[in-house]
């Protein structure tokens, strides 16, 4: 006990060092870079498609089909940010997070490096927290990659300027940009529930692939359950249910009800599955 | 040893094995507790927040109705939740198909920003609306949709409809400012309450039934009930703000019991002046603008979402032979289009007859035979000799009225 106490007392810097090495490992992985590349390609694809389709002057997304805000892109490139986030949030973003989170612990166990990590006097709780912090950093980076890629594509292909909120009022471009940033942050926070779930699954198995597959499988299952009207009593508790509420930030005045529900739900998932991951990981026999 | 021990186990000797296991199991108490606390919070907080009915000075029903009539709230903004459950068969896409068909008949061009098109959506399900008003000249109603919004903005002479999902704009003008009430769909509890109080006469009992809290404000509860039996209307409950006299919540429960047919209430309300920018609207660049010179047509079509007849064309045709039977709440309207066989009953009817027949019930009486089409609020009887009886009465009362009207 005394040794652990001593380590705990002397180690804020240690934790930072651990986090830094964890971040470097995560973001240097080819797999992570490939995921980010795919995410960056989505807005480009959407932007080019809208540009080509509307090249002859017809309006896009007639009738309001397709992802949210699609019909406004041609008039204001900033809307590509919202469309891209709305298009990637249901699947691409959480899938990428699921891959990274599922790999976090199980991947180390699979590669046989977990025991060496634990040789370092950091303690299991701290290692797990660091892993979770790294996964959350990935949530933020992934979302920002989508947003920035969409902003650049939108600026190149479409005009920019004042924009109309979905309530019909006008806001300046700079305020629109601020809201875009806020929306990106909300989207990133929307993913911490999946991240916690992935981390928990990751502590259950020693196979990185199995953990990733389970997390992504759960993600798809939850998305399907959310579509079944007969299960509406269950819907408010599914982590993906309020995801698209980020669009409420584009109302004037902002409609907070669903946004706060979403943030509360994500916090709940993070608390439940985070502590479950802790319970599992700190009590686990590390054999690999 | 280090990789094999967790930070809290100091001596994991052989002898401690059962204890260690118990300790390990105990860790799972943390996520379970978190979940339990969350569940308890979700369950208990609404109950605790409901701090009981507020204490307000006694008031008679007549005084309360007077208060509503004198209410002159001109500035407000708030969120309204409207739930309608008419018990219509859930036709899904078919229904909207019929609606758009009806609009095509009306000569509209089918812009999705047309107010009459959007009103149909309010007739079923739960919707969240935002309302804002600043005097008689400036109002706004927005229907909140997933990542989109439909706004109806009245600013002086202009009436704008903006559908953000399709980026389409509808523009109309009103001749004289102030006569916009009709333009606006009956969306707020006030609109519904005024409609309900119009029908108050000696067939109605009106009582004050305690107090309630609505949208964080203390309110009186006014209960309007039909005295006669046979009406499908069980009771109408109106929560009236004690300060401003404005109706905050309107609930219509059917006499058959079950969920409310119409439930409209503020979930948030403020009587401050809304920001001026709320009512300013310029069509966004590239938006498709539909000009509509005569809003009157739209007004004709708007009707009341709670009682919107499903086949307006048919009803309009029948208006020539319109008669009213009964009084008060049990009034039954009779349309006689003079053509026998209002509903095809022969073999010629084919599949259509089978389909329509499956939606209604066959009834017989002194008037002959006919088919009753029912919703939870309005029932209609179509007889074989081409008469249509419609009223907010039960099926039995409808048959009785038909017998009496014979």
Automatic annotation (TrEMBL), chain A:
Keywords in alphabetical order: Membrane, Transmembrane, Transmembrane helix
Transmembrane regions listed in the UniProt entry: 33-52, 72-93, 132-160, 180-201, 208-225, 263-283
The organism's place on the tree of life at top rank: Bacteria
One Pfam family here: ABC2_membrane_4
A GO cellular component annotation in the UniProt record: plasma membrane
GO molecular function annotation: ABC-type transporter activity
The keyword Membrane is annotated on this UniProt entry: yes
Name of the protein: ABC transporter permease
Automatic annotation (TrEMBL), chain B:
The entry's keywords: Lipoprotein, Membrane, Transmembrane, Transmembrane helix
Origin superkingdom: Bacteria
Keyword Thylakoid in record: no
Region (Disordered): 1-24, 280-313
The keyword Membrane appears for this protein: yes
Record field: compositional bias (Polar residues): 1-12
Name the record gives this protein: Outer membrane lipoprotein carrier protein LolA
Native species: Streptomyces heliomycini
């Amino acid at each position: 006990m005394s040794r652990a106490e001593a380590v705990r007392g002397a180690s804020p810097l240690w934790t930072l060092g651990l986090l830094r090495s964890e971040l470097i490992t995560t973001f240097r992985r080819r797999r992570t870079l490939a995921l980010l590349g795919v995410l960056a390609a989505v807005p480009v694809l959407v932007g080019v498609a809208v540009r080509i389709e509307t090249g002859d002057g017809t309006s896009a997304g007639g009738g309001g089909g397709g992802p949210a805000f699609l019909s406004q892109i041609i008039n204001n490139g900033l809307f590509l940010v919202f469309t891209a986030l709305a298009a990637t949030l249901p699947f691409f973003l959480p899938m990428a997070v699921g891959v990274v989170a599922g790999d976090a612990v199980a991947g180390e166990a699979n590669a046989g490096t977990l025991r060496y990590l634990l040789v370092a006097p950091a303690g299991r709780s701290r290692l797990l927290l660091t892993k979770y912090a790294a996964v959350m950093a990935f949530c933020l980076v992934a979302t920002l990659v989508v947003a920035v890629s969409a902003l650049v594509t939108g600026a190149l292909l479409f005009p920019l300027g004042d924009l109309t909120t979905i309530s019909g009022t006008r806001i300046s471009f700079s305020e629109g940009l601020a809201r875009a940033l806020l929306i990106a942050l909300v989207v990133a926070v929307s993913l911490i529930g999946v991240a916690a779930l992935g981390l928990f699954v990751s502590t259950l198995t020693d196979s990185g692939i199995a953990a990733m597959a389970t997390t992504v499988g759960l993600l798809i299952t939850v998305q399907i359950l959310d579509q079944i009207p007969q299960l509406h009593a269950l819907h408010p508790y599914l982590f993906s249910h309020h995801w698209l509420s980020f669009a409420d930030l584009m109302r004037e005045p902002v409609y907070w009800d669903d946004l706060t529900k979403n943030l509360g739900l994500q916090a709940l998932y993070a608390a439940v599955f985070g502590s479950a991951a802790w319970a599992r990981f700190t009590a686990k026999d590390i054999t690999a | 040893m280090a990789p094999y021990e967790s930070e809290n186990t100091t001596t994991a000797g052989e002898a401690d094995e059962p204890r260690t296991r118990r300790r390990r199991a105990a860790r799972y108490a943390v996520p379970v507790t978190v979940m339990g606390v969350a569940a308890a919070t979700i369950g208990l907080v609404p109950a605790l927040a409901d701090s009981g009915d507020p204490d307000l000075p006694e008031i008679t029903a007549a005084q309360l109705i007077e208060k509503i009539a004198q209410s002159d709230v001109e500035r407000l903004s708030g969120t309204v939740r409207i739930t309608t459950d008419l018990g219509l068969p859930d036709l899904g896409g078919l229904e909207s198909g019929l609606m758009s068909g009806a609009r095509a008949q009306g000569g509209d061009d089918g812009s999705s920003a047309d107010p009459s098109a959007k009103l149909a959506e309010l007739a079923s399900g739960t919707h969240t609306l935002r309302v804002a008003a600043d005097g008689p000249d400036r109002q706004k109603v927005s229907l909140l949709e997933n990542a989109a919004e439909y706004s109806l903005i009245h600013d002086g002479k202009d009436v704008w409809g903006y559908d953000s999902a399709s980026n389409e704009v509808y523009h109309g003008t009103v001749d004289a400012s102030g006569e916009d009430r009709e333009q606006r769909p009956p969306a707020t509890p006030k609109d519904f309450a005024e409609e309900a109080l119009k029908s108050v006469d000696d067939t109605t009992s009106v009582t004050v039934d305690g107090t309630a809290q609505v949208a964080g404000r203390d309110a009186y509860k006014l209960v309007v009930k039909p005295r006669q039996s046979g009406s499908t209307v069980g009771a109408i409950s109106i929560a009236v703000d004690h300060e401003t006299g404005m109706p905050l919540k309107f609930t219509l429960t059917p006499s058959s019991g079950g969920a409310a047919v119409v439930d409209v209430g503020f979930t948030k309300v403020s009587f401050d002046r809304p920001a001026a920018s709320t009512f300013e609207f310029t069509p966004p660049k590239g938006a498709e603008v539909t000009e509509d010179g005569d809003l009157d047509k739209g007004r004709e079509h708007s009707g009341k979402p709670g009682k919107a007849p499903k086949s307006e064309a048919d009803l309009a045709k029948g208006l020539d032979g319109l008669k009213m039977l009964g009084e008060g709440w049990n009034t039954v309207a009779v349309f006689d289009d003079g053509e026998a066989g209002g509903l095809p009953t022969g073999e010629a009817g084919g599949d259509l007859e089978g389909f329509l027949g499956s939606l209604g019930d066959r009834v017989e009486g002194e008037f002959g035979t006919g088919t009753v089409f029912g919703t939870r609020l309005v029932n209609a009887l179509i007889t074989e000799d081409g008469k249509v009886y419609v009223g907010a009465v039960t099926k039995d009362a409808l048959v009785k009225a038909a017998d009496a009207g014979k």
